[in-house]
C-alpha cells in the first residue's frame, strides 16, 4: 500500500497550529469589525470566465482549473452524444482543450471575487461598502520555503468613497493588529502613485513611467546599482538617474520629506496636478500643488487628529512602488524589522476602478491585506505564541475503575457547565498512562478521583508543571478552578 | 460584457449571513472544545490516490478533480516532450484520460482526510485522539433546494478507545449545541448495528443482512408498505416480515424497549453475542447477553450519571440504520421536530477501523457531524437569529464638514478603544444621506456632531429604532454607550 501523502505546497494544521492561527485571525477580525468592516465569504469555485484575464498571463497559468463533472470529453444534447475534444485539439494543446473540459477554477485572490460580488449585487448594496474577507486562495506556483499553493489572505476594502479617512484608518488598523499580536517593531511604509508620477515628470521623460516604476520597485532587492543598470538599458541617462536618486533619497521626518519633494518638483518645473482641497476635505491649509504630496499630508494630519502615537513607525518612502498593480493613489507596505528576510506582512493601496471588468465602472476604493502565513512565521520566530497546546482541555479527571469513573461524571458536567474544557480519561487504564496522556497533550491540571478520594468526598488536584498537589472537598473543586 | 455569475450550487455569504453562520460555528466550536476535542484543518486539495475508492462508485463520480498545472497534455523529461493523452485515450473516455491529466481532487468529506492524517502522523499522535474539524467539502452533485456543491461539515471524532463514555458524550454535545442555538424541540435517535444484526438473526435469515439494512433505512421515506415490497422482492416472506415489524415496533421508554427487544431475541432463539462486561466497564449489573442492547443500556446509564435531563428527547429507535456506512456500534441521528421535511441535522456512529485503507488497522473510534447549512435553515425557519446585521458597526458618527469631521476623530478612537465598533461617515455628505446609510446597514446609534454640538462640547445621540434623542457632554459619551 502506498503511503498516504498530501499535495506539495499544502499543509495539515494540527491542534496547536490551528489554535495559533485562530489567535491571529481573531485579532485581525476584531480589528476589522471595530472599524466597521463587515464579513464577506465567496465560493472556492469561481467560473473561469470571472477569473481569466484578471491576473495577467502568468496569473492565468497559475490558476487551478477544475475538470467539468461527468464525462467531460463529450457533449450530450437530446440524448445524442458527440465528442467534444478532438485529436486535433490534442495537437493544438491546452489552449484548445482547456476551454472544452474546464469551466471552473479555484479562487486565486480575494479582490476579483469581491469585485464580482459588488458588480452582481450593485442593486442592493449600500455604499460606502466596507467588507473584510479571510479565506484561503490557491496558486499553482512552485512551492518553496514560505510559499504555498494553498494559503490564507485577510483583506479589508472600502469602496464607493474617495475619502482619505479610509487611508488613515488603514494605518490605524495595521498598527493595531501588529501591536495586539506583540509585533511592535514594525515599519509601515507609505507612498503615493502620484508622487512616483511627479518624480518621473521631474526627470523630463515621457512614456516610460512603467519602466521606471518596475525598476524602482526592485530597489530593495537589487540596490541603486541594479536599478541604474536596468534604467540605463531602457535609455535613461546618467544625469537623469542622478536627479532621480537625489529625489528618492530625500531625508527627514514625514513632513520634511513632503516639503523637500515639493521643493524638488517646483525646481524641476513639474506641472502641478493637484486640486486645492474643497471645503469638505480634511485640511484646508495644504498648498496642494501636487495631488500625491497633498494627500499624503492629509493622511498624516488625519492620523494626528485621531491620536495616532506611532509616527516613528510610519515612514513616507518615495521608493515604494508596489509593482504593476492597479493602484492609483496611496500605497502601503509593512515590514517586521526584527525578522529579517521575511518580506512584507501587509500591503495595499487605493484604486480607481474596482469593478470595471464586470461592467460597473467608477467604483473607487482602497484596501489592504494581511498575509497570515507570514505573520505566523514572525510570531514563531520571535517566540510570541503563548499557551497554544495540543488540546483545549484544561483538566483531566482520572479514571480508576468503573465505579469511580461513573462517580466522576457529575463533577465533569459541572466543570464544563462552568466553561472549563475537561475530560474524563475514557478507559480505566493505569494511572501512569493517564498522566502520560495529560503530559503529552499539555493538559495543565489532573484531578485524581480514586476510591479513597471518593470515600472521603475529596479530589486531589495536581498541577503538572510544578508537581504541586492539593486536596479539596469535591464541592469546592469547580470554584477553586474558576478563580 | 457577460454578466458575472457564480457556479451553480455555490453561494456568496454576505455580511448578515456570515455573522449568523459564525454564531452557529461558534456554538459548535465551544461545545467541542469544552469536551476536549482539538481542532484540525486539512488541505482543500487532496491527492486523488487518497480520495478515490473511499466513497463507492457514485462518490468517485462526484469528486471534483483538479487539472494538473502547466501543459497537462504532455510529459516532459530531460527536455524531451512526449504526448501524454492520445487519440486512443479520447476514444476510451474519461477512464483513460483522467488519470493522465488530474492528480488532485477537492476534499469530499472530513472523515477520509482525518483518517489520512492519523495514518500519516501515527508516530507522534497521543491516543485517544479527540479532534474536531469544521471545513467546507465539495461534491459534483445535482444542485437542488438545500443541497449544495460547496457546503460545510463540522465533525468531531475520538479514536483509539472503545469506551462508551464517548457515545454518551456525543449525546451530551448534540443536546448542548441544539439547546444553545435555541432549537429545543429536537429528537436524538440512537440505535446499534448489533441490534439490527440481532433483529436479522431473529428472522432466521442468512446472508441478506445488507438487503435488510438498506430497506429498513428507507422506512421513514417509503413506509412499512414500501419496505415490505422491497424485501418481498428480495425473497423475504410475509411471516418473516410480520416478525420483523413486530420487533421494530417495540414501544415504551428507552429501557422498556431494551427489555422488550431482549425478550424478543431470547424468544426467537438468537445466539447471545455480548460479553459480560468486565470490571472496568461502566455497568456490572447489565445482563448483557446481546452486545447492542447492552451497550445502549450502558450509554443510557452513563447519561443518567452525567446529570443528563433530556431523556424525553433521546429515543432508542431500532429502525435507525444509517445506510451502508462503515458503522459497527452505536449510531445516532438528530431531527428538529418543529421544522418538518428538513432531514437530519446531525448524525454519526462508532466504527472499528478508521485507517485500515491507509495501512494502519485496528484504530476504533466514534464520531458525529453537524450539518451547518441545515442548522442555518432551521434557525431561519424558526426565526431564531438575533441581531445579525449588515455591519458590525454599533455607532455612526456624522460628518458635517472638514472641521467637525476631524473634531470627531478623537471620540471615534475612544469608542473603538472601548471595544465599540464605530465609523465616521467618510464624506461630508447631506445628513439625510448619512442617516439613510445607518438605516440601510442596521447601525443602531447615530452620534450627531455638528458645529453647534462641537461648540457646546456635546453630542446628540439618536437611537434609530425608537427615534429617541439624547444630548450628552462629549466626555460622557463613551461611558454612556459602554453601560
TrEMBL record, chains A, B:
Reactions catalysed, semicolon-separated, are:
tRNA(His) + L-histidine + ATP = L-histidyl-tRNA(His) + AMP + diphosphate + H(+)
The protein's Enzyme Commission number: 6.1.1.21
- Pfam families according to UniProt: HGTP_anticodon, tRNA-synt_His
Nucleotide-binding in keyword set = yes
Q: Which residues form the Aminoacyl-transfer RNA synthetases class-II family profile domain?
A: 1-410
| GO MF | ATP binding; histidine-tRNA ligase activity
State the Gene3D superfamilies in the record: Anticodon-binding domain, Bira Bifunctional Protein, Domain 2
**Where does this chain mainly localize?**
cytoplasm
| Compartments in which it is found | Cytoplasm
Q: Which GO terms describe its biological process?
A: histidyl-tRNA aminoacylation
* Class of this enzyme: ligase
Q: Give any Gene Ontology cellular component.
A: cytoplasm
Under the heading InterPro entries, the entry gives: aa-tRNA-synth_II, aa-tRNA-synth_II/BPL/LPL, Anticodon-bd, Anticodon-bd_dom_sf, His-tRNA-ligase, HisRS-like_core, HisRS/HisZ, HisRS_anticodon
Keyword terms: Aminoacyl-tRNA synthetase, ATP-binding, Cytoplasm, Ligase, Nucleotide-binding, Protein biosynthesis
Question: Could you say which residues bind L-histidine here?
Answer: 109-111, 139, 153, 157, 322, 326-327
Q: What does the annotation say about its assembly with partners?
A: Homodimer.
Homology family: Belongs to the class-II aminoacyl-tRNA synthetase family.
List, alphabetically, the PANTHER family matched.
HISTIDINE--TRNA LIGASE, HISTIDYL-TRNA SYNTHETASE
- Name of the protein: Histidine--tRNA ligase
Question: What is the organism of origin for this protein?
Answer: Hymenobacter polaris
Amino acid at each position: 500500500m502506498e503511503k498516504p501523502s498530501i499535495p506539495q505546497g499544502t499543509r495539515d494544521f494540527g491542534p496547536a497550529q490551528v489554535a495559533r492561527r485562530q489567535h491571529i485571525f481573531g485579532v485581525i477580525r476584531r480589528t476589522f469589525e471595530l472599524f466597521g468592516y463587515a464579513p464577506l465569504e465567496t465560493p472556492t469555485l469561481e467560473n473561469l470566465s470571472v477569473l481569466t484575464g484578471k491576473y495577467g498571463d502568468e496569473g492565468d497559468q497559475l490558476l487551478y482549473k477544475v475538470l467539468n463533472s461527468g464525462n467531460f470529453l463529450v457533449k450530450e444534447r437530446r440524448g445524442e452524444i458527440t465528442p467534444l475534444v478532438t485529436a486535433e485539439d490534442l495537437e493544438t494543446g491546452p489552449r484548445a482543450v482547456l476551454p472544452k473540459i474546464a469551466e471552473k477554477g479555484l479562487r486565486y485572490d480575494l479582490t476579483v471575487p469581491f469585485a464580482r460580488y459588488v458588480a452582481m449585487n450593485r442593486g442592493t448594496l449600500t455604499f460606502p461598502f466596507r467588507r473584510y474577507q479571510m479565506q484561503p486562495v490557491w496558486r499553482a506556483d512552485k512551492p518553496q520555503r514560505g510559499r504555498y499553493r494553498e494559503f490564507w489572505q485577510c483583506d479589508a476594502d472600502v469602496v464607493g468613497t474617495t475619502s482619505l479617512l479610509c487611508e488613515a484608518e488603514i494605518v490605524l488598523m495595521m498598527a493595531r493588529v501588529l501591536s495586539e499580536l506583540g509585533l511592535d517593531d514594525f515599519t509601515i511604509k507609505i507612498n503615493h502613485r502620484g508622487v512616483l508620477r511627479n518624480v518621473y515628470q521631474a526627470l523630463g521623460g515621457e512614456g516610460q513611467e512603467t519602466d521606471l516604476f518596475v525598476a524602482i520597485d526592485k530597489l530593495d532587492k537589487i540596490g541603486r546599482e541594479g536599478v541604474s543598470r536596468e534604467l540605463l538599458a531602457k535609455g535613461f541617462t546618467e544625469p537623469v538617474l542622478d536627479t532621480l536618486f537625489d529625489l528618492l533619497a530625500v531625508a527627514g521626518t514625514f513632513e520634511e520629506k513632503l516639503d523637500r519633494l515639493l521643493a524638488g518638483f517646483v525646481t524641476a518645473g513639474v506641472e502641478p496636478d493637484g486640486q486645492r482641497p474643497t471645503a469638505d476635505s480634511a485640511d484646508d491649509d495644504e498648498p496642494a500643488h501636487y495631488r500625491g504630496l497633498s494627500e499624503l499630508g492629509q493622511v498624516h494630519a488625519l492620523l494626528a487628529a485621531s491620536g495616532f502615537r506611532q509616527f516613528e513607525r510610519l515612514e513616507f518612502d518615495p521608493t515604494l512602488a508596489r509593482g504593476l498593480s492597479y493602484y492609483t493613489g496611496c500605497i502601503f507596505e509593512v515590514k517586521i524589522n526584527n525578522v529579517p528576510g521575511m518580506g512584507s506582512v501587509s500591503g495595499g493601496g487605493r484604486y480607481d476602478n474596482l469593478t470595471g471588468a464586470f461592467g460597473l465602472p467608477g467604483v473607487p476604493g482602497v484596501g489592504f491585506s494581511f498575509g497570515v502565513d507570514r505573520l505566523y512565521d514572525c510570531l514563531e520566530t520571535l517566540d510570541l505564541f503563548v499557551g497554544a497546546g495540543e488540546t483545549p482541555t484544561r483538566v483531566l479527571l482520572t479514571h480508576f475503575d468503573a465505579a469511580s469513573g461513573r462517580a466522576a461524571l457529575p463533577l465533569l458536567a459541572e466543570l464544563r457547565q462552568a466553561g472549563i474544557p475537561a475530560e474524563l480519561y475514557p478507559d480505566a487504564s493505569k494511572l501512569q498512562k493517564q498522566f502520560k496522556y495529560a503530559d503529552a497533550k499539555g493538559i495543565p491540571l489532573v484531578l485524581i478521583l480514586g476510591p479513597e478520594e471518593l470515600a472521603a468526598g475529596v479530589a486531589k488536584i495536581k498541577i503538572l508543571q510544578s508537581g504541586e498537589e492539593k486536596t479539596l472537598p469535591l464541592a469546592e473543586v469547580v470554584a477553586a478552578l474558576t478563580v
